[in-house]
């Protein structure tokens, strides 16, 4: 059977008081991306035609974040938090007239995967009207229990507070993820009441109502880890850890060597090629691409950077947004690079700041070189020609061009352009005083003796 079109509804109206935060819960990030963004992206990944996000009142920042996800999203506001069914019904407009499947996801469940949902989606495609994604857990307290019939059909979901002793012994739990057929969904949800321990409109009641209407209801199972809900900062940390573990394994499976994987931290969007070696203690901020064969030595922090084939980075390097390190180029220890292109084979090996610059191929930048790019008001550019040699401890005061093949004498302060193949040097002439130190020491010694005697 061909799979029908998909609408994803993301519930994100809860403020999440246990986060103890000024920001809505789903704004908190895993690997640098808000949790709600992970869930919306999953919807995109599933090929959803439409996505509806239900948020709470006065959540402007969340609204903006959702709009930034570059998906076709509709935002609905749930003014009063009257339960999960009530939340879903805020997206009534999106459900009305939707012919295919509807998937309800929680914005605070960022680890869910396509694979975990596949069984549920297949069952909907095979004609189930309501499906639930469940998980087995030794500690089911607090979760809705999935009550199955003899034949394995899903009979009902019983919320913990409303469950009998016998029902509470069930360890098969509701993850919160539910699937529906658009055609029958609203007729079921409109029948849901709030006659329960919480006086809430429970989305989970849709299962029993569907059965009463003679519709097919099913449960599908996934690992508990995939549906970990984040309610506080401890769980946020756990989710981050699981995400990182998965991402590290992905990089390894894609052909990168991680010497101490547990010490490497990825961003949600990090791209790592083959035969890349990443040494211990490396942190990736957003938007980094590492191409094949590059080697990242220990203790580097990389953000907004592109590292081309075979480049060597670190140890202790900091690449900031706009750093573009060419093939075979080398960025060494205690070097900071920002908004600068380092062409192929160039070397910036030690203790240097390169900002707003273009370093030509094969150039050698000596230890302690600083591009003085900022005058307190504006940023200016430094262009360093191919094959040039900048002596150690030089200050290049931008805007300035160093011609191809030029030499800069160590310790120079260069504020005007240097022509190709020239030597520029601003070092003061050396003066020398033979045996001065001997005379100085003798004079000082005599002074000290005179003082002690008095
Ligand atoms: C819900 C399920 C329960 C399941 C559990 C899994 C129901 C009735 N219960 O319980 O079976 O085991 O999730 O974690 O569905 N939300 C809104 N508006 C509301 C209420 C909730 O947007 O009015 C959102 C919350 O922000 C949250 C999600 O829906 O993301 C779940 O709500 P929550 O109150 O945490 O449900 P549970 O009681 O945990
Ligand atoms: Ca919850």
Your description of this structure?
- The protein is an alpha/beta fold and 454 residues long.
- Among the domains are: 6-227, Spore Coat Polysaccharide Biosynthesis Protein SpsA, Chain A; 254-345, UDP N-Acetylglucosamine Acyltransferase, domain 1 (3 Solenoid).
- Helices cover 22% and strands 30% of the residues.
- It is built from ten helices and 34 strands.
- The mean pLDDT is 97.
- The protein binds uridine-diphosphate-N-acetylglucosamine (UD1) and calcium ion.
- Uridine-diphosphate-N-acetylglucosamine (UD1) is lined by residues 11-14, 54, 78, 81-84, 86-87, 106-108, 143-144, 157, 159, 173-176, 202-204, 229.
- What structural class do helix, strand and pairing data support? alpha/beta
Strand segment tally: 34
Largest sheet: 20 strands, parallel
List unreliable stretches of 5+ residues: none
Instruction: Characterize the overall form.
Output: elongated
> What's the alpha carbon Rg, rounded to whole Å?
31 Å
By oligomeric state, this entry counts as: single chain
Q: How are the secondary structure elements laid out?
A:
Layout: E1 6-12, E2 29-30, E3 33-34, H1 35-45, E4 50-55, H2 60-67, E5 73-77, H3 84-89, H4 92-95, E6 101-106, H5 114-125, E7 130-136, E8 145-148, E9 154-158, H6 165-168, E10 172-181, H7 182-189, H8 206-212, E11 217-221, H9 233-253, E12 257-258, E13 264-265, E14 271-272, E15 277-278, E16 282-284, E17 289-290, E18 295-296, E19 300-302, E20 306-307, E21 312-313, E22 317-319, E23 323-325, E24 330-342, E25 347-359, E26 364-365, E27 370-372, E28 382-384, E29 389-390, E30 395-397, E31 400-402, E32 407-408, E33 413-414, E34 423-424, H10 436-453
Parallel strand pairs: 1-4, 1-6, 4-5, 7-11, 12-15, 13-16, 14-17, 15-18, 16-19, 17-20, 18-21, 19-22, 20-23, 21-24, 22-24, 23-24, 24-25, 25-26, 25-28, 26-29, 27-30, 28-31, 29-32, 30-33, 32-34
Antiparallel strand pairs: 2-3, 6-10, 7-10, 8-9
């Amino acid at each position: 059977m061909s799979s029908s079109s998909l609408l994803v509804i993301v519930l994100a109206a809860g403020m999440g008081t246990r986060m103890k935060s000024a920001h809505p819960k789903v704004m908190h990030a895993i690997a640098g991306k808000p949790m709600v963004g992970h869930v919306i992206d999953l919807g995109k990944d599933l090929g959803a035609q439409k996505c509806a996000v239900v948020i709470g009142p006065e959540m402007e920042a969340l609204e903006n974040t959702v709009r930034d996800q570059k998906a076709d999203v509709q935002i609905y506001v749930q003014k009063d938090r009257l339960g999960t069914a009530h939340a879903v019904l805020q997206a009534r407009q999106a459900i009305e007239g939707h012919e295919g499947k509807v998937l309800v996801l929680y914005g605070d469940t960022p680890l869910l995967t396509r694979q975990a949902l596949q069984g549920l989606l297949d069952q909907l495609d095979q004609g189930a009207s309501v499906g639930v994604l469940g998980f087995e857990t030794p500690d089911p307290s607090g979760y809705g229990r999935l009550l199955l019939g003899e034949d394995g059909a899903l009979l009902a979901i019983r919320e913990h507070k409303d469950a009998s002793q016998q029902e509470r012994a069930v360890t098969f739990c509701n993850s919160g993820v539910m699937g529906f057929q658009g055609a029958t969904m609203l007729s079921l949800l409109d029948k849901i009441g709030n006659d329960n321990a919480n006086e809430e409109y429970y989305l989970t009641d849709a299962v029993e109502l569907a059965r009463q209407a003679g519709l097919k209801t099913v449960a599908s199972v996934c690992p508990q880890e995939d549906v970990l809900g984040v309610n506080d900062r401890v769980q946020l940390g756990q989710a981050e850890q699981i995400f990182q573990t998965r991402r590290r394994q992905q990089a390894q499976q894609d052909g990168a060597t991680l010497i101490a994987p547990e010490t490497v931290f990825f961003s949600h969007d990090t791209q790592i090629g083959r035969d890349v070696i990443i040494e211990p203690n490396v942190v990736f901020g957003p938007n980094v691409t590492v191409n094949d064969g590059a080697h990242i030595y220990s203790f580097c922090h990389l953000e907004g950077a592109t590292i081309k084939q075979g480049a060597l980075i670190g140890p202790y390097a900091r690449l900031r947004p706009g750093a573009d390190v060419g093939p075979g180029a080398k960025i060494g220890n205690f070097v900071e690079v920002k908004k600068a292109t380092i062409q192929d084979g160039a070397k910036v090996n030690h203790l240097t700041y390169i900002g707003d610059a273009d370093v030509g191929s094969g150039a050698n930048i000596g230890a302690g070189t600083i591009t003085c790019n900022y005058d307190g008001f504006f940023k200016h550019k430094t262009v360093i020609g191919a094959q040039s040699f900048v002596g150690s401890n030089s200050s290049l005061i931008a805007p300035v061009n160093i011609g191809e093949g030029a030499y800069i004498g160590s310790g120079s302060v260069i504020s005007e352009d240097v022509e190709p193949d020239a030597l520029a040097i601003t070092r003061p002439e050396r003066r020398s005083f033979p045996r001065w130190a001997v005379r100085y020491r003798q004079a000082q010694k005599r002074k000290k003796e005179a003082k002690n005697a008095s």
